[in-house]
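Input (structure):
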């Protein structure tokens, strides 16, 4: 029984090391959408207002609610 537990612990340690070697984190500050700007997600269309005054990308659907009126 001890061998099974020891091998299980070793396996978990190996998996944790494998996951950490290639891991990295990039923090990008939030960007407020503005009408007419190029979509920061797909970069394929300009941000426009929809009928509910949300800023929306017509290609990928990125949406920001709470536009000023």
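Output (sequence):
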């Amino acid at each position: 029984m001890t061998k099974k537990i020891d091998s299980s612990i070793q396996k978990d340690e190996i998996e944790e090391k494998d996951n950490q070697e290639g891991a990295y984190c990039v923090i990008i500050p939030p960007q407020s959408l503005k009408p007419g700007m190029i979509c920061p997600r797909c970069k394929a269309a300009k941000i426009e207002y929809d009928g509910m005054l949300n800023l929306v990308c017509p290609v990928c659907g990125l949406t920001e609610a709470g536009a000023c009126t």
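Notes: The beta strands are 48-49, 55-56, 63-64. Residues 2-21 form the longest helix (20 residues).
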